[in-house]
Write a structure and sequence with these properties.
By secondary structure, the protein is an alpha+beta fold. It folds into two domains: 6-54, no CATH class; 60-204, tt1808, chain A (Alpha-Beta Complex). Helices cover 29% and strands 27% of the residues.
């Protein structure tokens, strides 16, 4: 009895985990509707001017910080019945003329704007966006998405930097972002969520 060829065996194993045709990267530019049809709930990708941009996997630090922020934000929003908090992967279709389908780490949508929520995406700008950065995403989150969220009139934008234990908070004023600093105790007070206070020290304890 002949022994199986190691090369053939390896190909068989890899084939079991290879993406199916429907999940291979679409060639060329596609519409937002085509992107929705192609992606599924496990797809880590964004839609940028008709092109699919694959996202990297999250680190342990990222997951710990995201989980903590989602937990305390959701508890506050639920208690006060002021809207809904969602976490990635959940697509946000930014308003025209921006041709963007982004997947922020966390979003908050105020109660009066919940009608914008569709089964698989938010059709419009969130009231608040949280992005948790990594070395790979820092430039995109701090510059590209910063500009997009500002243009889309996202009222509040938080940038959390686990690797450097720093955070930046921006509030929309007269159509432009203005940086708002935490107080001397490292506590940030949200404008979009009145009464919500975020302790940076508590965040870093999660890492």
């Amino acid at each position: 009895m002949s022994q199986p060829d190691n090369g053939s065996l390896l190909k068989e194993v890899l084939a079991q985990y290879a993406p199916t045709d429907e999940h291979t990267l679409p060639p060329g530019k596609i519409s937002f509707e085509q992107f929705l049809a192609w992606a599924d709930e496990d797809t880590l990708a964004e839609w940028v001017e008709g092109e699919v941009v694959l996202m990297t996997l999250a680190s342990l630090k990222h997951q710990r910080v995201a989980g903590f922020l989602f937990m305390i934000m959701r508890a506050f929003v639920t208690h006060h019945d002021v809207g809904e908090v969602l976490f990635a992967p959940f697509l946000v279709r930014l308003p025209e003329p921006l041709k963007r389908g982004r997947e922020p780490d966390i979003i908050y949508v105020a109660k009066e704007r919940l009608h914008l929520l569709k089964p698989t995406y938010l059709d419009g700008a969130p009231d608040l966006v949280v992005e948790i950065t990594s070395p790979e995403s820092l430039g995109r989150d701090r510059h590209v998405k910063f500009t997009e969220y500002e243009q889309a009139s996202v009222r509040e934008y938080w940038l959390i930097h686990p690797d450097t234990r720093q955070a930046e908070f921006f509030q929309l004023q007269d159509g432009r972002y203005r940086q708002i600093w935490p107080d001397e105790d490292g506590v940030y007070c949200s404008k979009v969520l009145p009464g919500f206070q975020l302790s940076l020290k508590r965040i870093w304890e999660e890492i």
